[in-house]
Amino acid sequence: MAEKYEEIAVVVDQSSLGNGIYDLTLKTDKIAKAAKAGQFVSVYSNDKSKLLPRPISLCGINRDDDTIRLVYRVTGEGTGTEDFSRLVMGDKVRILGPLGNGFTVQPGKKAFLIGGGIGVPPMLQLARDINAGIVQTPGEEKNPGQAACKGAVCDMNIVMGYRDENTFLLDEFKEQAASFVATEDGSVGTKGNVIDAIKENALEADVIYACGPMPMLRALKAYAAEHDMDCFVSMEERMACGIGACLACVCKTKDKDAHSNVNNKRICKEGPVFDAKEVEL
Length: 281
Ligand code: FAD
Ligand code: FES
Prior knowledge:
This protein is an alpha/beta fold. Helix content is about 15%, strand content about 30%. It has helices at about 30-35, 80-85, 120-130, 170-175, 195-200, 215-225, and strands at about 5-20, 20-25, 40-45, 55, 60, 65-75, 90-100, 110-115, 155-160, 180-185, 190, 205-210, 230-235, 250, 265, 275. It binds flavin-adenine dinucleotide and FE2/S2 (inorganic) cluster. FE2/S2 (inorganic) cluster binds near residues 240 and 246.
């Protein structure tokens, strides 16, 4: 079982990316070195009336300076994410992580990295790690000290879906690989969704790695089945404990769980990344 750590992280930087999206960098003790793309951290609010932590994916992992980067959307007034948006350099924040399984990359297979909305951020670290060849490959998932897992560098196209012209992280994706955009209103890139962008640009791949809203994941599962592709989806559904104890986050699975004998998996523990064939979306 991979290690997780509870730490008091220190805010190194926080900036607004506009339209309620924030970009937070935290100095960690052990979490950055242990983390891999597709994992998340549970972030506690400094407002003690909010007991449950909020799960936020790792958008960036700097294993040299032990920092992690979280890009998140403020969901409304009085929320945990609004509390996080007020953090400034030097503030301290309690976090638990790295949590979840992260992405497992199929060596040598041409990949689509697909992000939709607030599911875009975790795909950036995956793109960086694929280019650096430090992703976990099949069979390595249960290794502790995961960050050292070495995998194949593979060819990829990045496809991102946003609502409108308020895109974020685009330039950083373009530094990693050919990047394509879809917006619902057509203000940037292809008008429509990520599948419309794939079709319009005649893109092809063997495997999909995706994170985003459920309708997008559902559509990608169907697209992958139609095109005989593998598809791995990261599900960012609501959570409570974040560590597998409360069952607030279960999703329906094709196979029965060996221990409980029910068709359930905990997104926080067995996920958030699943083979789309194994889960009901
Ligand atoms: P709350 O006060 O809890 O709720 C306010 C509003 O937000 C409500 O309308 C509620 O329905 C809605 N809401 C709460 N949780 C979610 C959710 N999971 N999805 C959609 N709507 C929600 N968000 C990011 O911005 N960036 C990330 O990188 C990110 N990564 C995530 C990774 C995982 C594994 C999971 C499970 C979620 C992730 N989320 C991410 C979603 C984030 O955790 C929620 O937006 C956050 O917990 C909301 O907390 P809050 O205190 O702001 O809102
Ligand atoms: Fe408690 Fe997943 S959030 S089991």
